[in-house]
Amino acid sequence: MNVFRLTGDLSHLVAIIxxxxxxxxxxSCAGISGKSQVMFALVFTTRYLDLxxxxxxPYNSVMKVIYLGCSYATVYMIYMKFKASYDGNHDTxxxxxxxxxxxxxxxxxxxxxxxxxxxxxxxxxLESVAILPQLFMITKTGEAETITTHYLFALGLYRALxxxxxxxxxxxxxxxxxxxxxxxCVQTILYCDFFYLYITKVxxxxxxxxPA
Amino acid sequence: xCSSTEKDEL
Lengths: 212, 10
Prior knowledge:
By secondary structure, chain A is mainly α. Chain A is built from eight helices and two strands, in the order ααααααβααβ.
């Protein structure tokens, strides 16, 4: 465990909790893509099946349970508890266009052709693109609440920190996982445009709004 | 190519 890995995990945790708190405090999930959140719940579910088969460390297990719990709680808030505030009309990205190709790719390109390994690969690939419905929704409405942009920044930062962690691990441990690295690069690249807007607008006290 | 069966990352 190096400092980039740890701060990456914490950044991910901050993102997830921030979103949950925002929805809870405002009693509203307006501006949040339910489809992205369902996909993140699917990502955690398919990746953390090893909770039952493989014990790594208390830290590892506890974080997995927190991610899973928060992710399901978020989906519950969006589709059940605060359903009335869910902006379904603007959440129009077709999730099947991501899930089906990603599922096919996980079958074709994986480390090992076993159920758990294919599901793990699926989760890595799906995570890399799961934010697209959310970014699409912001493009469509042309704006995002500032707290939502903090969430997105922390979520994007997490994978960027993991990229540095992988470079570190390659040099100091000789460890590398090509599937995770390629997907992690794709995932980080998808946030680049958003990072630019976040730094130039939100950090200067302006609301994130796109030109019409 | 490293296949990591023991996945310590989250």
